[in-house]
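Friendly challenge for the regulars: who can give me the structure tokens for this chain first? No prize, just bragging rights.
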Amino acid sequence: MKNIKQTIIGVFAIIGVLAIASSFTNKSEVNNQSEGDWAVLETASGVPAGYLYNKRTGEAFYLQKEKKTKL
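First reply, four minutes later:
Bragging rights claimed.
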């Protein structure tokens, strides 16, 4: 009976150590878009508006006050 208890405790201890070790080796997923991929182009008309351009994908948005329009 004592042997079975020690075996079960040993198995759970090994599982715990493996779980902790694997958590250190996993890399977290990194977002493909970094901060440097976006460019902001302001309009010169004095209206609070501008363009938001993604340099990597070519995606562009026109921003005017609270509206965001995909181009």
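The CA atoms of residues 47 and 56 lie 27 Å apart. The chain is about 35% helix and 30% strand. Your move, everyone else.
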